[in-house]
Amino acid sequence: MVRFATSLSKESIVDVEGVVSLPKETLKATTQQVEVQVRKIYCINRAIPTLPINLEDAARSEAEFEKAEQAGEKLVRVGQDTRLNYRAIDLRTPANQAIFRIQCQVENKFREFLLSKDFVGIHTPKLISGSSEGGAAVFKLLYNGQPACLAQSPQLYKQMAICGGYERVFEVGPVFRAENSNTHRHLCEFVGLDAEMEIKEHYFEVCDIIDGLFVSIFKHLTENCKKELETINRQYPFEPLQYLEKTLKLTYEEGIQMLKEAGTEIEPMGDLNTEAEKKLGRLVKEKYGTDFFILYRYPLAVRPFYTMPCYDNPAYTNSFDVFIRGEEIISGAQRIHTPELLAKRATECGIDVSTISAYIESFSYGAPPHGGFGVGLERVVMLFCALNNIRKTSMFPRDPQRLVP
Ligand code: ATP
Ligand code: AMO
Q1: pTM of this prediction?
Q2: Which residues does the UniProt record annotate as the domain Aminoacyl-transfer RNA synthetases class-II family profile (predicted)?
Q3: Which ipTM value was assigned to this complex?
């Protein structure tokens, strides 16, 4: 039996029959102290003799590699591409096991919180006839011979659900972006957590939902996922997220002013680039002691066509982005709810209104003021745990170079 057992390759699946023994002197043994005196062993599935990834190497932290190197030991670092090529093995590392458990908790809390606030879960089509966000970043395909595309977001349909009399809706589903963005935070397919709701007085009602939702997600992770967070921290050390009980809101202009005072000039009424967003994140942390904040009242020129212009100054919009550690996790806004203005803004943004006529018409049958937001699930987990690449928080990532496994 010993010879048979020693012939088994690492990661083979076995059934073992034996006697469990605990050390005499301890009442509470750790797993490592428990022994199984094996009587019978069956091999259910034998792994190949040499795996393409050594799991011990894949689970080491950078600090362990450096320490080993200083001691003259030679260890093999497992690169991101190799990990993703052999994801079924890579997923077995303790950190990866923890990451996708955390992801599941975020998604679960998102549903639970919104259900408790009377939102209804919906499912909107992913095979659609035109672009949802404008722009060219759509995957095109043929749908029974007709040109079609994969939905860039549930945007138009979640608004149509509001037109359909649902006061508050949410959706968890895939989002497709054909952008050629080879960055640490862009995927071609990600999980969108979307919500849309009627607004009674002001679009800050949407921000209040985000505030309650994310404070409850952060608290839940901190209090109930300690083991998972420690496991991730062992391989990828990170500072715990700092957030306020009431989420900080700053205007876009206040953000620009903070950047200006710190020596960064932004093109007037322009978007913040990645570097500026990160810098603003650092400045906000220094001044207000939070890694999580909302920036609102963006210029019209940098927001999608369906965004409601500000009543007091239409060069700005009733819109916002939300940041964790200086990177965007959420975009949201009040939407235009009159068909005339919607068609005008779509045309101004270069969108052929005939491709979205059913959407625009939905607002001629009586549509309440409403707003909503979209969250990227992978980004939330990546930034909560300060991981350096979104591919670590997507189980089988799709990026411009990767369609397999
Ligand atoms: P959205 O979800 O609104 O697209 P995002 O986080 O994907 O938000 P973008 O609006 O696409 O952000 O881009 C914001 C910033 O991200 C850009 O100003 C740019 O600095 C950076 N960025 C986007 N794509 C790339 C890229 N391929 N390479 C480098 N930086 C990029
Ligand atoms: P937006 O395009 O900003 O807004 O997307 C919403 C959120 O989705 C995430 N995200 C991404 N995650 C991974 N890879 C990508 N390529 C990627 N692009 C975006 C981000 C972002 O904040 N319809 C609006 C939302 C709304 O207003 O309700 C929209 O799609 O976390």
Answers
A1: 0.95
A2: 100-405
A3: 0.91
